[in-house]
Design goal:
By secondary structure, the chain is mostly helical. The protein contains 2 helices and 2 strands, in the order ββαα. It has a two-stranded antiparallel sheet. β1 and β2 form a beta hairpin. The relative contact order is 0.06. The mean pLDDT is 79. This is Autophagy-related protein.
């Protein structure tokens, strides 16, 4: 049986189909996030190399992504209340 949070043993949670330690969850999530960001940036920057609006493409897309991340965080914070 998994250990409860606050006990003297490591805390484990279900994540990606397995019971994992919190440290493992953080490392996996950071790795997945980095991979997604790298792919998005490579795609957006390649797209922004063409046309007359190229500086605006990168700025608009990055602002939209920032707003989306903030929105997701706010929704998650509200749901935990």
């Amino acid at each position: 049986m998994p250990a409860l949070a606050g006990s003297n043993t490591d805390c484990v949670l279900p994540y990606l189909g397995k019971m994992r330690n919190i440290n493992s969850i953080v490392l996996l999530t950071n790795g997945i996030s980095f991979a997604i960001q790298a792919v998005l940036l490579l795609m957006i920057e390649a797209w922004a190399d063409y046309g007359t609006q190229r500086p605006n493409i990168t700025v608009v897309v990055m602002l939209n992504l920032a707003v989306a991340v903030v929105h997701i965080q706010v929704v998650n914070d509200v749901q935990t209340l």
